[in-house]
Amino acid sequence: MRLTLFTDFALRALMRLAGEPDRSFATSEIAAEFDISRNHLAKVVRDLADAGFIATQRGAGGGFSLARPAETITLGQVVRALEGDSALVECFRDDGGDCLLLPRCRLKAKLAAAREAFMRELDGTTLAECAYLPRPVRHPARSS
After folding, report:
1. Are 53 and 16 in contact (CB under 8 A)?
2. Are the C-beta atoms of residues 79 and 7 closer than 8 Å to each other?
3. What confidence tens digit (pLDDT) does each residue in 72-116 have?
4. 74 within 8 A of 128, measured Cβ to Cβ
5. Which residues contact 20 (CB under 8 A, 6 or more apart)?
């Protein structure tokens, strides 16, 4: 299974928000921390807000934060919201693609079962379980 880079960025941002659920983050802050393009992350934030996972606030002191507790958000919900029903392989497309093996293919059912197992695992995992905690602040050693 392979997730898009867009979904990868979204999961990273959500994990970071879950690590400090009581604060708001600027797009530039998360982008710098994870070495992600700020413009790309802004699109991710927009889609996460549209899907109801995060709340955003514009202006001075604005930013984004989780819209609901991390314990109530599953990774499966996020992946489905962002990936939609993208075809795992060509024959999974609505039009069946150009697969020459259909209708006698014996692989399609196995791939469908693997996809379902993958999503079942994500459905059973909450964002809280994957929270990315902030790095501890290091203080310079003091000389006596």
Report:
1. no
2. yes
3. 999 999 999 998 877 666 667 777 677 777 677 888 788 889 889
4. no
5. 133, 134
Q: What percent of the chain has pLDDT over 90?
A: 63
Q: How many CA atoms lie within 13 A of 103 on its CB side?
A: 0
pTM: 0.83
